[in-house]
Design goal:
188 residues, mainly alpha, Hypothetical protein af1432, 2 domains, 10 helices, globular, binds fe (ii) ion
């Protein structure tokens, strides 16, 4: 039997494909967001000595309700927690560990909601993923006719939502990103 990470990743990829095939915007959650969240979450798990399997499963599942098109964006952490519970029990993942993964999904909207280090890794990774995908930020800005100042304000807001330790570690990356955003957006 495949390990739980592969099984859950396959579930996420299948829902992602369905979303791309059937939705109006054909948005590729995996390529644009989830894979970056997983990468950042694993990096943080190693920095903060968190449980890497819990963190990776939490990162894979954190936006599952959006990908599965269940409920609204406002409620996606709650609906995601229900979906995560169903998927993890489908593969008989131990209940005590499943609860920790579900916590990562439920509390991913801000690191201020994190109740443990694994939840903090997923919440911070969700934000850091934005700073890995310049083209998504620029495409969004174009789509919404946002100004350079609007985009920078949004990025600043995201950065402020990081935990204090992650802010310290990732400040240089954030500052470089802002510099590049200014250059990139002025080229459009
Ligand atoms: Fe989310
Ligand atoms: Fe997300």
């Amino acid at each position: 039997m495949k390990n739980i990470i592969c099984l859950i990743k396959d579930e996420v990829l299948a829902l992602n494909q369905k979303y791309m095939d059937e939705s109006e915007d054909h948005y590729d959650f995996w390529e644009q967001h989830i894979k970056y969240v997983v990468g950042n979450a694993l990096n943080l798990a190693s920095k903060y000595q968190a449980d890497a399997e819990i963190v990776e499963l939490g990162a894979l599942l954190h936006d599952i309700a959006l990908i599965a098109k269940i409920g609204t964006k406002k409620d996606h952490h709650m609906n995601g927690a229900v979906l995560a519970k169903e998927l993890l029990s489908k593969y008989e993942y131990p209940q005590d560990r499943a609860e920790r993964v579900i916590g990562c999904v439920f509390n991913h909207r801000t690191s201020k909601n994190a109740t443990n280090i694994e939840e903090l890794c997923v919440a911070d990774a969700d934000i850091l993923a934005h700073f890995d995908n310049m083209s998504m930020i620029i495409n969004n800005a174009k789509k919404h006719n946002a100004t350079v100042d609007d985009v920078i304000e949004r990025c600043r807001h995201d950065f402020e939502d990081l935990s204090e330790t992650s802010k310290e570690i990732f400040k240089p990356k954030y500052e470089l990103f802002i510099e590049n955003i200014e250059k990139g957006l002025h080229l459009i």
